[in-house]
């Protein structure tokens, strides 16, 4: 069999395959024999249908198509083996199948074109001597006090207030109803759907509601009714009222103030597993210090990786991209499932193509990062000792004793993580990293650690359903 190769874009190898005349005849005859054994034609015993009758009933096109399918499949497989190509994914027929049927003559050579994806050729123009900037995240002692204060607020006792007006920090129970301000004189105010509630309890705090609402309640006394002017922000989710002025008729029914629990050992025992306030403070401080160090480390690695892939040249094959998209969507589905979300409702035949398309940029980025790190390891012969992998696997198996853990899969993950750590360690040692103040390179919001791991109850109060329309979004 004659096979000619050519390089194609997107890490494909083009193949021009010539099937010998004897093999094309052999395949055609074999297909006829198969049809003869399986055909059930009235007047003839199974397997005894004359060749000419079979051709008339089935048609030569159908038989030639079946023979072609066999020739193409076996031809591509043999060509890949003969040319010693390390193919990935499924081969693709480049020739028109309809044209091949018209040109195919049993007993004569058959020539067709195909393509196979292969691993991309990697060129990393520079990986040593990188010069990057990374944000340094410093430990903020105020975070400890913030967590403790939030828990005090959460466990405050509400005490009825008499003899004074409402002030910031109080909790009020109100009735309210909202109206849009008429755009022209003489028009009737339009009631805002969803902007009303009875016996609604809320804390008076700056920025909690749309502009003007809380400030208007401050100074009111129980039993007082007042019309308050407010303004919906431009970016408000309900577009029909975004940016428009409104008025709310508000009646204060009850007024309460918070009595905060004392910050002592009893309080520490109530909100955590620790016996003393000092232990709780120490644990929070350690966690926040470790988090700051971890974020700084992540920032340095991210900066190195971003610069590294700028020097990477790799023509990614479609097979690799599609496989990475599959992996991303699988991870997303698993995360949503763990949150109790019915993924079948989200991943439908209509949404999956859109999700796949949106996932492509991230898939390509992840592949480039992975290939760049692999190339560094290859060039510098960076490896992980098997003993280190086994030790870490043993440690994790003991930590998750009693759980159904796939040891082989765990070993693969540990191998990859330890190797990645060694690669980054090498890159840091052979690069110049300038640490700059947090926030100076980007405006990403700080990701807080999950304080629930230390403190049993959440420090964030739940939002009331009645604030859907009145409360401004955090972005505002």
From TrEMBL:
Annotated PPIase FKBP-type domain ranges read 169-261
Which Gene3D superfamilies does the protein's record reference? Answer: 3.10.50.40, Trigger factor ribosome-binding domain, Trigger factor, C-terminal domain
Q: What class of enzyme is it?
A: isomerase
Per UniProt, the ranges with Low complexity bias are: 462-476
Q: What is its EC number?
A: 5.2.1.8
**Of which family is this protein a member?**
Belongs to the FKBP-type PPIase family. Tig subfamily.
The domain comment in this protein's record states: Consists of 3 domains; the N-terminus binds the ribosome, the middle domain has PPIase activity, while the C-terminus has intrinsic chaperone activity on its own.
Q: What is this protein called?
A: Trigger factor
């Amino acid at each position: 069999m004659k096979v000619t190769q050519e390089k194609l874009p997107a890490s494909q190898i083009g193949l021009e395959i010539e099937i010998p005349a004897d093999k094309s005849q052999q395949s055609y005859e074999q297909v006829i024999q198969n049809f003869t054994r399986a055909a059930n034609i009235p007047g003839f015993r199974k397997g005894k249908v004359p060749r000419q009758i079979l051709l008339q009933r089935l048609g030569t096109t159908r038989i030639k198509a079946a023979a072609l399918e066999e020739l193409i499949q076996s031809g591509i497989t043999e060509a890949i083996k003969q040319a010693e190509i390390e193919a990935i994914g499924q081969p693709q027929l480049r020739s028109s199948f309809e044209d091949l049927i018209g040109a195919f003559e049993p007993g004569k050579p058959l020539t067709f074109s195909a393509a196979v994806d292969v691993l991309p050729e990697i060129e990393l123009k520079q990986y040593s001597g990188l010069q990057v900037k990374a944000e340094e995240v410093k430990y903020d002692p105020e975070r400890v006090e913030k967590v403790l204060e939030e828990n005090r607020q959460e466990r405050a006792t509400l005490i009825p207030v008499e003899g004074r007006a409402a002030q910031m920090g109080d909790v009020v129970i109100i009735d309210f109803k909202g109206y849009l301000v008429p755009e022209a004189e003489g028009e009737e105010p339009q009631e805002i759907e969803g902007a009303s509630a009875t016996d609604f309890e809320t804390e008076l705090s700056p920025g909690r509601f749309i502009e003007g609402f809380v400030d208007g309640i401050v100074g009111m006394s129980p039993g007082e009714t007042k019309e308050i002017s407010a303004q919906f922000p431009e970016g408000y989710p309900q577009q029909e009222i975004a940016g428009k002025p409104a008025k709310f008729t508000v009646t204060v029914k009850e007024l309460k103030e918070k009595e905060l629990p004392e910050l002592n050992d009893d309080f520490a025992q109530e909100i955590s597993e620790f016996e003393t306030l000092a232990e709780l403070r120490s644990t929070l401080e350690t966690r926040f210090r470790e988090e700051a160090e971890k974020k700084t480390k992540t920032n340095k690695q991210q900066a190195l990786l971003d610069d590294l892939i700028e020097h990477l040249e790799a023509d990614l094959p479609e097979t690799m991209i599609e496989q990475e998209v599959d992996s991303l969507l699988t991870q997303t589905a698993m995360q949503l499932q763990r949150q109790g979300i019915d993924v079948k409702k989200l991943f439908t035949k209509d949404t999956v193509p859109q999700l796949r398309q949106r996932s492509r940029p991230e898939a390509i980025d992840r592949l480039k990062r992975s290939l760049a790190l692999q190339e560094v390891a290859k060039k510098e012969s960076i490896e992980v000792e098997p003993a280190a992998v086994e030790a870490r696997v043993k440690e994790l198996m003991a930590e998750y004793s009693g759980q159904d853990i796939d040891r082989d899969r765990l070993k693969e993950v540990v191998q990859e993580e330890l190797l990645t750590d060694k690669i980054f360690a090498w890159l840091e040692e052979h690069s110049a990293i300038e640490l700059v103040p947090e926030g100076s390179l980007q405006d990403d919001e700080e990701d807080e650690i999950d304080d629930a791991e230390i403190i049993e109850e959440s420090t964030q109060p739940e939002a009331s359903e009645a604030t859907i329309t009145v409360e401004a979004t955090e972005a505002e």
